[in-house]
Fold this protein.
Amino acid sequence: MSDIADLSKGIGISKDQLTADGEPCILYGELYTKYKSETIKEVISKTNIDNTKLVKSKANDVIIPCSGETAEEIATARCVLKDDILLGGDLNIIRLHGYDGSFMSYQLNGKRKYDIAKVAQGVSVVHLYGEHLKNIKTINPSLNEQKKIANLLSLLDERISTQNKIIEDLKKLKSAIIDYAIGSLDTNFMKFGSVYETAREGGTPTTSNTSFYDNGKIPFIKIGDLKQKYLIENKDFITELGLQKSSAWLVPTHSILFSNGATIGEITITTYPVCTKQGILGIVPKANIDVEFLYYFMSSSYFKKAVSRIITEGTMKTAYLRDIDNILCPIPTKEKQLKIAKVPSALNLKIDSEQSILRLLYAQKRYLLHQMFR
């Protein structure tokens, strides 16, 4: 890479130097949070730092983090499309000689990502500097061909962005419908503790004991698994012995899983028996409580606000079941519950369909990056 670009490093801008106005700037953490495509068209952060030595971008610069949690994560390239953006100190700057920056960022995020990962150094924090990047080999067709390839991939990025917007809008619509339905209920209130047969947290078998995990068949749910309405798959398993020797318990099908520790409010409906780690409540509804209605009620702003008021601060934020039990809940008849759940359930099917399209778009992009940059 040193044959086609000058490699340098930004100069430090700390988060406490950010302001609401001033000059636009990019910090390395924003490459993981704000910028999801290969190009940076807009910059949100600004700083009033007075330092003429700060490095500023030139349109077509490619930037890549100097540090990250994993070797593959660190290989996240972005092309800056604007001049005079301040570049933070934990950014590698690749200033190309007559090559297209967007094309290069796509290439570096394709199979070259694994080449970059190999030269990054570190364990708990991985570091990557210009010295490591200079020997990375790249494919460099004519500038005209580079622009055509970058344009094709950018159109796919725009389609992915549109698809994400469709999904977010559907989720907002679903939330608004749920909040309206719950807010319009004219019914008696009952304490949350009276809507379930059984509820309690799970537990984690001792991780150092391999007999609790090796060849395990019992699904073991972590917070990262609570991303969809229905739990249809999971990655981790424990053994029967692990279940017996821990506070984990078997949560039956058609129950609610609700995260009440650290990350609070993630929720799903079980479609098969599972056990969970601590920080996740298993909730088995009573016969007169429809699990779909309970899912939507616990997803509503009403319930989320009530939970936020009883969170206990400590080493880890926790919403204890004993406090959740006292939340007053407007619970109508089961017939009414079924009617309320019908509309958001239909929207959920639509959201699932749109998310399937999104996964296909991401798969198409991965395929193109793999085929174009062998």
About this structure: The chain has a mean pLDDT of 87.
